[in-house]
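In this notation, each integer encodes one residue's backbone shape. One such record reads:

___
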Amino acid sequence: MKGVFITGTDTGVGKTYFTSFWTRSLQKTGLTAFPLKPVSTGDRSDAKALFEAAEGRISLDEINPIHFPPALAPFVACKLTSKVFPKESLQRHLQQLQSKYSGPFLVEGVGGWRVPLSEKYGVREWAQELNLPILVVARAGLGTLNHVLLTIDSIRQADLSILGIIINLYPGAGDDASRTNPRIIAELTGLPIFPLPPQALPTEELPSWLRLKS
């Protein structure tokens, strides 16, 4: 698969917010990217946001083929609903998308990097199978240094490449942690950083490392 795997340091850090922004921004540069949220729990608002960002180029069910109503980690949601996580179905779906669309695909994970999908299979293992570069989305405020460093360590231990880190400045508290974290994270990880402004518009200029090729 051609594209990027987008993960987070936690749930609710802004993965969908960024993926929607990135989809629209790439379109402005003339590159058609296909955002995916293959696994979701709770409502399907994230998948619907990606569907809107894609402007009808890909259907909602193609974006999000696997959905569990309980707003929990997929492994827990499967337990509560007496289901088995459909790993093979997920793999087939992504293979079918590759035969239908040229990509690149912006594959958004579910929750954070170590969220379990089943007992012995989680977001990390799924990302290893896809073998895509990883993009990490993190909050800007206090606690982010620890979460980012733990996530980066685990991705590197999984022998996967890291494209960079998105620091979501929403809601833009302007505290000392939010102000200093982007620079400190860049210094500690050696990775490129993109501070995502609140209410970012597609006209926002992307750094060169976020301008994907067709």
Remarks:
- The longest strand covers residues 162-168.
- The chain has a mean pLDDT of 94.
